[in-house]
Amino acid sequence: MSRQELAGNNNQVPPGYKQTEVGVIPEDWEVVRVGDLEPYVTSGSRGWAKYYSKYGASFIRITNLNKNSIYLNLNELKFVALPNHVNEGKRTRLKNGDILISITADIGIIGYINSSVPQPAYINQHISLVRFDLKNIVSKYIAYFLVCEKVQRFFRGSTDQGAKAGINLDKIRSLQLAIPPLPEQKAIASVLSDVDELISSLDKLIAKKRHIKTATMQQLLTGKTRLPGFGGEWETKSLEYLTECLDNLRIPLNEVQRARMKGNYPYCGANGILDYVNEYIIDDDIILLAEDGGYFDEHTTRPIAYRMKGKCWVNNHVHILKAKPGYHQDFLFYCLVHKNVLPFLASGTRAKLNKSEMNKIEINLPKNSEEQKAIASVLSDMDKEIAALEKRRAKTQAIKQGMMQELLTGRTRLIKP
């Protein structure tokens, strides 16, 4: 069945399909509301902060829900220790197969509870819990269905506007679902879960490769580990000695100018590429070092330095650096990525790296430029490997989105009716 056929209106529904409130679906699928399935629906309790502890039961918050997956992000998991006499929290004690939905702030993020979530576990007041009778429904299928764009539009359109945006439990119960026969629910959930496992494995591999790269940088850029065939002394030089500063090529653009200049050349700022414009002011291999707005702190992971090769436009929030003859551009770039520049920032209402202070930043480097080049080559190969994995992950994520569109609408059937 082609997409064009399935996209038809009420008068053009293809054989074997029917037009419903949730769109065109197979004839043997049903449309039901969440409430029709008689689930247990509730939300978390308030006042959990006093029970926070270093150890204890898992406490799930919106930050643990994942926009790109139904599986939870447990990297910043908090814990609570409930006294024996506290019964209110036990109302929301989670079980495998439960579905979580964020109901305040960033509404409609879906979570699915499985054995990866340490038990016992509870939720706060910003999350709704939906628990089905697992004999009659595959809750993982429902979780995937709730991620679909049509349902997400329902969440956005049903938001109660007020002091704080939110959605009530009656709206959760009114959600419409397209339900295939139980065997097909299981098959769809299994296939999508397999893809999610592949994405998760890629995430873990990418994280491992980044960790290895960080450790390698620590060893090679400090001279603690020397590459085979190299010896000799290292020296310490300031950026003023090692680089040319091309800040005279910086030109800011406001939003109106950028909108008028839409094109193919990167428009670069402190935090990376901001836009694409139809003109360029520099055509070179350069290092961009944030002047303000792009520094690491406990809340952000934005870059302090990045590379651009070729034609681009640079604004006035980033310094433009190029290695002087005799020093390797790639090596200096990795040194600046590794370097803590926070001590050089000017204090005030907004942290800023002035040019005079930037020039004082010192770099340790081997006197032999060939060793600089060799170190940079090792790190560059690592970057390429990580980039290839990230590209594969993005492709897999796109494939998953396409599969969801096909499987959760019945366009592609895993089990013939």
Question: Quick summary of this structure?
Answer:
This protein is of the alpha+beta class. The protein contains 10 helices and 20 strands. Among the domains are: 30-179, Alpha-Beta Complex (Adenine-n6-DNA-methyltransferase TaqI, Chain A, domain 2); 233-367, Adenine-n6-DNA-methyltransferase TaqI, Chain A, domain 2, CATH 3.90.220.20.
- Overall shape: elongated
Give me the CATH superfamily of the domain at 30-179.
Answer: DNA methylase specificity domains
Radius of gyration: 27 Å
Structural class: alpha+beta
Pfam families: Methylase_S
GO biological process, one term: DNA restriction-modification system
Domain Type I restriction modification DNA specificity: 26-204, 233-393
Keywords: Coiled coil, DNA-binding, Restriction system
Describe the structure.
- This protein is α+β, with helices and mostly antiparallel strands and 417 residues long.
- Among the domains are: 30-179, DNA methylase specificity domains (Adenine-n6-DNA-methyltransferase TaqI, Chain A, domain 2); 233-367, Adenine-n6-DNA-methyltransferase TaqI, Chain A, domain 2 (Alpha-Beta Complex), CATH 3.90.220.20.
- The chain contains ten helices and 20 strands.
- The protein has helices spanning 3-6, 139-147, 149-157, 169-173, 182-220, 239-242, 255-260, 329-338, 355-358, 369-407; strands at 17-20, 23-26, 30-33, 40-43, 52-53, 57-60, 78-80, 99-102, 110-112, 121-123, 127-131, 176-179, 234-238, 243-245, 262-269, 272-277, 282-290, 305-314, 318-323, 362-366.
- The strands form six sheets. The chain has a six-stranded mixed beta sheet.
- The chain is elongated, with a radius of gyration of 27 Å.
- It starts with a helix and ends in a 10-residue tail after the last helix.
- The model is unreliable at 1-10 and 297-301 (pLDDT under 50).
